[in-house]
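Attaching the record inline, Q. Sequence:
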Amino acid sequence: MSASFPLRAAALFAAALVFSVAAAGAATAKIWTSDSSADFSAGEARGVAVTFNGELVLSRPLERVEGVGEAVLYDAVTAKDGVVFVGTGEAGRVLRVSPSGKVETFATLAEKQVTALALGPDGVLYAAGSPGGKVYRVDGGKPSLYYDTKAQYVWALAFSDPALFVATGLPGEIHRIDQAGKGNRIHASSDAHVRTLHAAGNGEVWAGTSGSGLVLKIAAGTVTTVFDSAKTEVTAIASGPDGRVWAAVSSSEGASAGEPVAAPPPQPARPPRPSASPEGGDDKEKKPEVTVTVGTPRLAPVRPAGRSGYSSEVVLFEKGEPPRTVWSSSDEMVFDLGDAEASSVLAGTGPKGRLYRISPDTWSLDRTFDEKQVSIIAGDAIATNGASAFYRMREGERAGEYVSAVKDAGRTSTFGAFRFEGEVPAGSRLEVAFRAGESAAPDSTWSEWSAFRAAADAPKILAPPGRYLQWKLRMTSGGRSSPVIRRVEAAYRNRNAAPVIEAFLAMGPSEVFARSAGGGSNVFETTAPDEKGIFTSLDEPKPETMPRKLLRKGYRTLTWKTSDSDGDTVVHSLEFRPLSSNRWIPLKSDIRDSFYSFDTSSLPDGEYVFRLTASDAEANPGEGKTASRETSPVLIDNTPPVVRRIGVDKGTLRFEVEDSASPLTDFEYSVNAREWVRVEPEDGLSDSRKETYSLDLKPADRNGYLLVRATDASRNVAAASFSAP
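Structure, as predicted:
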């Protein structure tokens, strides 16, 4: 059997290894930089705010009000004297929170949930009870029925001048009630719920639905649809003194079609009723009975990063301009908008408990809450659900902490210098702490936070080696001056990774790679043995071009493919040993190419094993790593076959060819120096070290000059001459 095909295949694979060599560069220290609003907003800010300009500053102190223990908080409004009224669930209570933080029950409705509140022009509180769809006037803490919508739910109340607007669910309607308490339906939505209402300062009333996510505008008694979002629900609307209107639109995979994100506990459906006409009359056609199951306020669940399923956008409406999205998130839901200033609005979200400040052109993180859902923003009051809590802004000494996002260094790293840019005024203080770990989310395997140190005295990151890093700032100020942080840098260096030997093999006998020294010449020099070793190799003065495969008698080529994930320069060395020995003998060192060709004539015939060692020590002084790989046994055979004539009979000659190490591949003859003629062995296959061949010469070739030659698998050739009989 001929051995030429596997040798050719090996050569092709070896060529692929040689041509795949990529440029390498040394690994260096890296700098993790945080210096923008987006960078800082990825962390957690408690008592610290991220400005639109990408600065960390202390925010206004926020104090939790004790005594608000209801399971669910639905709505809140702030009176002119600073009193906050809170609508709660489960017991139908309206809480009164004084400016000093005293909490008391102001009123109790017959319904279990107080789902909406509004303050009238005269300062009297109006409250909506659900289920049941009733609106109460609560004067002096005593509720009296003001209006019955005959809907199952009332979701929002809003005063515009003297009129009270009411948004309902099941069915989704908008009612208008005059000063005398007389009301009528002014809009019947195709959606099951009108979820939110907002009275702008110019006499317009804005509304949002749940189901199709429609934004409606009521002006001069006319209701128009001004925006049809791709989301399912409009969760909040706010406006500022400049006439801008902001609307939050959201979707949740947990809500069925038309079901609001937050809804009261299950209640039996009300029997069907005649629906009021837009003018307040009765429709002749009755609506079908609707049965719905709704639950307690839904919290947007925590999902793995990258998973969709709930999302939000904040859409800005400006006079004379089309609506445009100014903020969006694929993993957070906006539950309320508030504190709309001339150029920005606050957005309370879940499930990460984040409060954002959003402007027409940018946004930033204003604060992070431990509770999962920031659901109510009412002036200087903020309320959360899951768990429920109530906070109020206050004056006084300011302090806060900022925790950075988790930095993934790619693999285990050592950490170096920490540096910040900013100001720390007299009387204020800035401290820093660090921690590191090997898991993407901080857990028990992470190191503990290091002790806080003054940031100016912390030139080095005090954290053990790890793949992930976090830093934490603690800021305090006794007066109005606050530390200002504009840029934070954390240096790290990946631990050196060992090179990888992806492939290592010996090419076929006599196959070499050589680069032409310009002009395409196949001439190359051989380097004679010297005191450094016994092997002759191929040296070329200009190895700029890609190597080509050539044949050179007695040479073997080792070829390999290595890589280094750090991009470090990899230097190679070769060793060999006879198969019967365990002692490795140096062959060549400091090889920067991906192949090495050498003359094997200095070695006795036999089987040898070659070892490649790849090192990145040059790029990592004192920290270099190596990788090694061995070939399978490689046969070195430089001895040609032996040809013997064993018989002559009437123009037929018989020859026996024998090789000591390699199988025979070819036997040829030539008469009178004409072209070579291939002869197959008598058994039909050239696959053994000993074969017999027969030549039948033509009469015209007899008495001529006969040459025969035999070739083995190691490309050794034996030739002999005879007189043709």
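DSSP finds two helices and 57 strands in the chain. Confidence is low (pLDDT under 50) at residues 1-26, 262-308, 518-525, 528-532.

More tomorrow.
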